Amino acid sequence: MEIHELTLVIPVPYIESVNKLHATRIKKRISVSSKTKKKFTRSYAEIILSGAARKAKDRYLKALNTHAPKDVLPKVDWKNVDITYGYYISSKTFSRRDYDNMTKIFQDCLAQHMGFNDSCIVNGHSYKRCIPLKSRISKNEYIYVKIKNKCRTDKELLTKEEEISSLVGLKWN
Predict the structure, then answer these.
(1) Spatial separation of the C-alpha atoms in residues 166 and 171, rounded to whole Å
(2) What whole-number percentage of the chain has pLDDT above 90?
(3) pLDDT, tens digit, for every residue of 115-171?
(4) Is residue 134 one of the residues assigned to a domain?
(5) What is the pTM of this model?
(6) pLDDT above 60 for 102
């Protein structure tokens, strides 16, 4: 079965707006000199997910497994994906959260869950909407996702450099 479009709505207690996705951890390794055979300590930096990003990833994967179980999802060869994210969030924190900070960690979780590499996304759209306190039924926030597969052929994605270079600069109409 060929799937060209898939829509998900995932309720979550809180949509994370992760400003710091990665953290640096200093690790030490004991090495032995090849010449003197003496032991010495070498320090190096390791890039890891920040604590907030790791917690958000765990919550998102749990929500995806609950509301869109892998065994129900169709097997799809994801290629040239067009994806839309809609974030429906509380009015209390609406103005404090950047929509792009909400996207990256969820996108990584979605790609892992759906079985594709997020490098196959060629078009992306995102927006945020406020859920007013008066109209709230539950305390959940919601992530709307629409995935369109094979939105363009590889040939249509090719661009000649002179086409884009002729547009460089600022133009006012």
Answers:
(1) 12
(2) 28
(3) 889 899 999 999 999 998 888 888 899 999 999 988 777 777 778 878 778 778 777
(4) yes
(5) 0.76
(6) yes
Whole-number Å distance between alpha carbons of 11 and 142: 4
Q: How many domains does the chain have?
A: 1
Distance CA 47, CA 104 (A): 17
In a domain, 165, yes or no: no
- Does residue 169 sit within a domain? no
Is residue 34 in some structural domain? no
Please name the residues in contact with 10: beta carbons below 8 A apart, sequence gap of 6 or more: 60, 63, 64, 67, 68, 142, 143, 145
Token pair 């979605």 in the structure block, residue: 110
Q: Which domain holds residue 113?
A: 1-17+52-68+77-157
Please report, for residues 60, 140, 154, the alpha-carbon distance to residue 79 in angstroms, rounded to integers and kept in the order given.
23, 32, 9
